[in-house]
Automatic annotation (TrEMBL):
Protein name listed in UniProt: Sigma54 specific transcriptional regulator, Fis family
Alphabetical list of SMART domains matching this protein: AAA, REC
One MF term in the entry's GO annotations: sequence-specific DNA binding
Domain Sigma-54 factor interaction stretches: 336-565
4-aspartylphosphate PTM positions: D56
GO biological process, one term: phosphorelay signal transduction system
Keyword annotations of the record: Activator, ATP-binding, DNA-binding, Nucleotide-binding, Phosphoprotein, Transcription, Transcription regulation
Record flagged with keyword Nucleotide-binding: yes
InterPro entries, per the entry: AAA+_ATPase, AAA_lid_NorR, CheY-like_superfamily, Homeodomain-like_sf, HTH_Fis, P-loop_NTPase, Sig_transdc_resp-reg_receiver, Sigma_54_int
UniProt entry tagged with the keyword Transcription regulation: yes
Matching PROSITE patterns: RESPONSE_REGULATORY, SIGMA54_INTERACT_1, SIGMA54_INTERACT_2, SIGMA54_INTERACT_4
Residues of the Response regulatory domain: 6-120
Length: 653
């Protein structure tokens, strides 16, 4: 047997570690050692250069396998967790480190080998996508450098090119001037998909209550000490604490993360490109490494900018790239409406994954538009001229699911009077969208896993093996990690589907999109209902914003249709909200004794603060606030930011 990858086992129980070693050797793998702690593992990694690491989470010396994850990612070494603990909080902590798999002790040899196959598949996909992104970014930077445009036109194209690879809500480019104590800088704010506003920095300073000349010396000194890197959430808050301009800017634009690269230009000037995001989890070591590999192209482009510093004060109009045919975003994202930062992040993910062959798992509450997103991914993919077949797993009786997916032979079961092709056969060469995948029975999950791994299946009642080439997009409103922990969803299938997750925000998390969505539905439904309604009154918009939308966009569309049906004239003035939400906006509700009843938001803030206090501010991990509240840490962090709960509070024993 040909020797496969070299594997390091990090496991503090010798018997378990040795059993793993024997399984791997029997399967043809090389095992370079068994480490009992994180420090021992690092020493073995430096010495033996493994290609994979099997990683226990809780080690006897008190160290955590999760602490090794960042180190392994820096070295581009794939890792799989092995743990006897599968409660939801442990799965959340593990997921945050982005492993390639998770095995639950005790497991069979077959389970281990399947998980390694899945991990290899995901790792190869990630490497391929990263390489494609890097090559495309190099090409697009070079196109700007070599293009015969005016410098102002080149500058206008920078945000669009960089956004494709490094998402941002605010972009700042600073170059120390040719003369001492001078600074040339550019600021761009993202306002939509492929849309950017060039901000005048003097005017921006004034809007922040600052005088540019007053803070200039401090900013130049800071730039001269810049080494680059990425900061998220608490680290970002700590970094801006003693920086006047960054602190004011971050509060003004609600920024929570930063990624920066510093380059020295041929003339000796220092240039810094800083990306800022409202999402605290946007930036990673991989993105910082990618930027580092782009350093030469970035340096050439910034050198062109620096050579004509008068161009920095030129009027710049942000626009789409012109080195390729313009793309109509109305067609590209047909039916998808939104400009909020959290939703633009979703569009960025779609753009990134569409051209790849990877499986996609769309997560989100009911009514958030998962099928629209699946159609958009297919429409932008190389498979767009082939079928997109949709299967609603929740709508099929359990006894018919396999027949629906894989087809059946004549006489396979009572009522099977003819041979029938299944959905996978119909989707050959194209895409299959498995909606509500969390409803699939465990027996059918086994067959689906085989199709994903082997790209083959047999019809129900048949023996002929049918080969297919199908991209799988799955969606669910369930927490699949919880389903895995409770034994209702196969762990290996979860990791096979979860190659590229896309998380859709609820409508209450993107309320700034409500006016856009409302106008979209007015335009769409007015035509459908033969009404001449063109505008929405301020009071109607206020009512729409005040409602929590448990049914998300689907519910909003139904509410808008009812409201338009009840409207006379050309302006929509009244929103027909559900009875539970019919309390007029701005009304104060009191109890029988006259005391004001707190709003749900006030009660939520109070409850989260109380739990945080009991945990002494700890959010993640065992005994953290997220575990006590039954929420994923990412969701709790999002709520803390959304509700304006300050992270600098103090807790007393």
């Amino acid at each position: 047997m040909t020797m496969k990858e070299n594997i390091l086992i990090v496991e503090d129980e010798f018997i378990v570690g040795n059993d793993l070693r024997l399984m791997l050797i029997r399967a043809g793998y090389a095992v370079c050692g068994i480490a009992a702690s994180v420090d021992e593992a690092k020493a073995m990694i430096e010495r033996n250069k493994p290609s994979w690491v099997l990683l226990d989470i809780f080690l006897l010396d008190g160290s955590l396998g999760t602490d090794l994850a960042g180190y392994l990612r820096q070295k581009n070494i794939g890792f799989i967790y092995i743990s006897a603990n599968t409660n939801q909080s442990i799965l959340e902590i593990a997921r945050a480190t982005r492993p390639y798999g998770f095995l639950v002790k005790p497991f069979r040899e077959k389970d281990l080998l399947i998980m390694l196959d899945i991990a290899r598949y995901k790792h190869q996909n990630n490497l391929q996508m990263a390489l494609q992104r890097e090559q495309l970014m190099q090409k697009q930077l070079q196109q700007i450098i070599e293009a015969p445009f005016e410098l102002a036109d080149k500058i206008a194209r920078i945000p669009d090119v960089l956004q494709t690879f490094v998402p941002f809500d605010y972009l700042h480019i600073a170059i120390t001037g040719k003369r001492p104590h001078t600074l040339e800088d550019l600021s761009f704010q993202r306002t939509g998909f492929d849309e950017y506003e060039h901000l005048d920095n003097t005017a921006l300073c004034k809007s922040l209550g600052l005088e540019r000349n007053t803070i200039l010396t401090g900013r130049i000194a800071q730039l001269e000490n810049e080494t680059g890197g990425y900061l998220s959430d608490a680290e970002f808050r700590q970094w801006i604490a003693d920086k006047i301009w960054e602190s004011k800017l971050s509060d003004h634009l609600r920024l929570n993360a930063r990624l920066a690269i510093a380059v020295t230009l041929p003339a000796g000037n220092l240039a810094v490109i800083s990306f800022y995001s409202r999402n605290a989890d946007t930036y990673t070591e991989e993105l910082f490494t990618l930027l580092g590999r782009m350093e030469n192209g970035i340096r050439q482009l910034l050198e062109q900018i620096q050579q004509k510093n008068d161009a920095l004060s030129a009027r710049i109009v942000a626009r789409k790239r012109v080195e390729k045919p313009l793309i109509d975003n109305e067609v590209l994202f047909e039916g998808i409406v939104g400009r909020s930062p959290v939703f633009l992040s979703v569009l960025h993910s779609i753009n990134m994954v569409s051209a790849a062959p990877s499986s996609v798992l769309i997560l989100g509450e009911s009514g958030t538009g998962k099928e629209l997103i699946a159609r958009c991914i297919h429409r932008q993919s190389p498979r767009k001229n082939k079928p997109l077949i949709t299967v609603n797993c929740a709508a099929l009786p359990a006894e018919l699911i396999e027949s629906e997916l894989f087809g059946h032979e004549k006489g396979a079961f009572t009522g099977a009077t003819d041979k029938r092709a299944g959905k996978f056969e119909m989707a050959d060469g194209g895409t299959i969208f498995l909606d509500e995948i969390g409803e699939l029975p465990i027996e059918s999950q086994v067959k689906l896993l085989r199709v994903l791994q082997e790209k083959e299946f047999e019809r129900v009642g048949g023996s002929k093996v049918i080969k297919v080439d199908v991209r799988v997009i799955a969606a669910t409103n369930r927490n699949l990690e919880k389903e895995v922990a409770e034994g209702r969803f196969r762990l290996d299938l979860y990791y096979r589907l979860n190659v590229f997750p896309v998380e859709l925000p609820s409508l209450r998390e993107r309320k700034e999109d409500i006016p856009l969505l409302a106008q979209h539905f007015v335009d769409k439904l007015s035509e459908k209902l033969s009404r001449n309604i063109t505008d929405i009154s301020p009071d109607a918009l206020k009512a729409l914003r005040s409602y929590d939308w448990p049914g998300n966009i689907r519910e909003m569309e139904h509410v808008m249709e009812r409201s338009l049906l009840m409207t006379t004239g050309t302006i929509l003035k009244q929103i027909m909200l559900p009875k539970m939400a019919a309390q007029p906006v701005g009304t104060t509700i009191s109890s029988a004794d006259g005391n004001r009843i707190k709003t749900l938001e006030e009660m939520e803030i109070e409850h989260i603060l109380q739990v945080l206090k009991s945990c002494k501010g700890k959010v993640c991990g065992v005994g953290g606030a997220a575990e006590l509240l039954g929420l994923p840490p990412s969701t709790l962090n999002s709520k803390i930011r959304k509700l304006g709960i300050k992270r600098d509070f103090h807790f007393k024993d």
